[in-house]
Write a structure and sequence with these properties.
The chain has 118 residues and is mainly alpha-helical. The chain has three helices and no strands. It has one domain. It has helices at residues 9-28, 41-62, 87-117.
Length: 118
Amino acid sequence: IHGHLTPGGGFAGGVILAGSFILLILAFGSDFMNLTKEEAGSTLYKNLAILVVVFLAVSGLLLGARIFFLNWLPKGNLGELVSAGILPLYNIFIGIEVASSILTIFLALVIFKEEISE
């Protein structure tokens, strides 16, 4: 089990997270989550997650190492949960970005359909 040590888990986790919110909306309706046309929360999370990923990517340059994507966190010991350095942070924020992007697309479709039916 080394999913937190390798890249790629952020996308799958983001899809699962977005799917859980989409299933809630499909099961209980859009009134359950008080969806409005001004639903900008998911877009805000998407933009913030992208900014954090970009900041993490250039943090090596900001720390003066002249290395893009520098792993500036300690790597830890083999077998420990926190042993991958900066990689889990990338996975978390990429997951948030993917989840909010998919949710934004779904919410746009739901709100657009409700506007047409009114």
